[in-house]
Amino acid sequence: MAWVSTALSEMVSTELGAGQELRVVPAEDVSGRRNEVAWKGAGSLSKDTLEKLHQNLESDLVVLGSYATLGQGNNQRLRIDLGVQDTRSGELIAPIAETGATADLFDVVSRIGVRVRQQLRVPEMSPIEALEVRASTPSTLAATQLYAQGLEKLRVFDALGARDLLQKALALDPNYPLAHAALADAWSTSRPLYSPREE
């Protein structure tokens, strides 16, 4: 279930970025800074770490979270704990916990997005924005898993491994726009810059 971490990060970013009330730092930029700070990915961060994130990413807020799986098989559930921390004051603004069936991951993340927006006093998404967010997510959990695993491969520069996983994701959901974009990145990264001439 390691893919859930990547999937949750992507989905929460999409939820919070809708409507452009919040500027969401691209995941690639965040990933590139993880080794530069004492990053645990859950709980709260030290003031020194928050100051570095504020300077390096120009971010006023950091979203931190963790998840746990409960049960097995068709009865498996997820508990997601999430918090928003102010990079200047260190204050933990919005501690949130949501639980739901793994199969209902999209709905669980949607509820989290609503609650974070309420805590930050950000306007709710309009019906059109909500439709756009839903259109940007895959239609099946299996496609979500393959997409997340593909992104993980891309972030460790395994473009060929990413390409295979993203192609499988698109086979399950040909209309998934983010998978198309990630696959284009994988193709451009795995393609040689030149071809040797044949003598």
Note down, in words, how this protein is organized:
With 199 residues, the chain is an alpha+beta fold. The chain has helices at 3-17, 27-33, 47-57, 105-119, 127-135, 141-155, 159-172, 177-190; strands at residues 61-70, 77-86, 96-101. It folds into 2 domains: 3-137, Rossmann fold (3-Layer(aba) Sandwich); 138-192. Strands 1-2-3 form a 3-stranded antiparallel sheet.
Quickly describe the structure.
This protein has 199 residues and is α+β, with helices and mostly antiparallel strands.
List SSEs in N-to-C order.
HHHEEEHHHHH
Number of folding domains?
Answer: 2
Question: What structural class do helix, strand and pairing data support?
Answer: alpha+beta
What sort of overall outline do the alpha carbons produce when their principal axes are compared? globular
Poorly predicted runs of 5 or more residues: none
CATH architecture of the largest domain: 3-Layer(aba) Sandwich
Strand content: 5-15%
Strand ordering within the main sheet? 1-2-3
CATH topology of the largest domain: Rossmann fold
Number of strands: 3
Radius of gyration using CA atoms only: 18 Å
Report helical residue fraction: 40-55%
Q: Span between N and C termini?
A: 50 Å
Helical segment tally?
A: 8
Largest sheet: 3 strands, antiparallel
